Amino acid sequence: MKKKQSPDLNYGIVFILPAILFLSITSLIPLAYSLGVSFTNLNLLRPGQPIQFVGLQNYSTGIRDGEFLTAAWNTILIVSVSLGLQLLIGLMLSLILSQERKGFRLWQTILLIPNIIAPVVVGVLWRLMFNPDYGIFKLGLAQIGIDKPWLQHPIWAKVAVIIVETWTWTPFVMLTLIAGLKSLSDTPFEAARIDGASGLQIFRYITMPLLKPVIAVTLLLRLMDAFKMFDSIYVLTYGGPGLATEVLSLRIYKKGLKYFDITEASAQSWIFLICIFVISYIIAKKFVQVEKRIE
To answer: How many angstroms separate the Cα of 234 from the Cα of each of 59, 103, 230?
Structure first.
């Protein structure tokens, strides 16, 4: 006998269809179009030119592009350092602010402000602070003998971008780790205190092992988002000086929408997407292994 479909299931399908349609129009169709374009010789500057299939030519050219490789290195460096700082500072703040003490909830709210400001506004604010004539870094740090050409020197421009990324996203890491800490059972901590374990021992042998799945999820979420950084760098340095702070998303934007090389830009964006997918898959796999060990 044929099983009847639940009316609730039918209603669910009806309600979810608009979301699927919206995602298809805004995500899947553009993705499919860019994939198709990446295998052709489409030229936006010559609309009358016949479109031909060129195979992996755009991918081969794109991956050998010196500026693309420089942008890839910049992205890896900035993401690695800023993400490491975010996890370190976020963990320290979460350990302090997860305690139920007077005023700590207010501090949590205040520290979340950088994360709720629009990235373009963040870029503008920090560009003003790094200004070599009247910026707060120039006026403040110069008084103690630290006077650096923040946005004019390749190394210091990278440092500036890392500072901005760390300042912006540490609150997100802090918030997720606070939630993770508050979800942990009190039983192992109380048992450890009764046995005379020190605070450092509790942190090393109980808190960190139990918190590893939360850290892995936080790292995965931040990593996927960090690789897409664009807005704040666009406003802060526009990839300069030279190519010192040009990241992959900005490089692909310039390639496709400034130089109108849409085919190579599409190929590079797919190379970028595949790299993010592989890295995310590796971290997700490690996360599953960590969960299994804990269970």
So the answer is: 25, 37, 6
Number of Cβ atoms within 10 Å of the Cβ of 82: 23
**β-pair partners for 40:** 53
State phi, psi for 46 to the nearest 5 degrees: -130, 75
Q: Which residues contact 179 (CB under 8 A, 6 or more apart)?
A: 214
- The pTM for the full model equals 0.88
pLDDT digits (tens, 9 = 90+) for 165-215: 999 999 999 999 999 999 888 888 888 888 888 888 989 889 998 898 889
The H-assigned helical ranges of the chain are: 7-23, 29-37, 57-63, 66-97, 104-111, 113-116, 119-129, 136-141, 154-182, 187-194, 199-202, 208-226, 231-236, 248-253, 262-294
* Contacts with 272 (C-beta within 8 Å, 6 or more apart), sequence order: 227, 248, 249, 252
**Residues 218-245: pLDDT tens digits?**
988 898 889 989 999 999 999 989 999 9
Based on the number of CB atoms within 10 Å of its own CB, is 89 exposed (0-12), middle (13-18) or buried (19 or more)? middle
> Which residues touch 287 (CB under 8 Å, ≥6 apart)?
213, 216, 217, 220
Q: How far is CA 119 from CA 230, 241, 293, in A?
A: 9, 20, 38
Alpha-carbon Rg for the chain in angstroms: 24
CA angle 188, 193, 196 (to 5 degrees): 130
* Phi (first) and psi of residue 4, to 5 degrees: -80, 140
Q: Output phi, psi for 214, to 5 deg.
A: -70, -40
